[in-house]
Prior knowledge:
alpha+beta; 5-stranded antiparallel sheet; 4 helices; 27% helix
Amino acid sequence: MKALVFNNNIEAATLERTKDGFIFTYLDDYFKDSARPAVSLSFPKNQKQYHSKYLFPFFSGLLAEGYNKEVQCRTLKIDENDEFTRLVKTARTETIGAITVREIL
């Protein structure tokens, strides 16, 4: 599964779940444009790609918790432990801050 990461509605990067974990990759145009800020302090633009065995904490921080998490998982029929699916299904709009995430179909 793969998703586009937007910064203020501008395509900035991709986030991909692989069999080995997760890969965050800046898009070429965004990475080369020095006027565009990093998506997060966790992903400085001195490196184009980042790897992790687990969903990056920055993206986990965009997810609902508690009762809202339960409602989202029940309504969308998502496993409560599947943070990546929750992210791509719920972080399209109205996230805290400028970052949104949309699933690539």
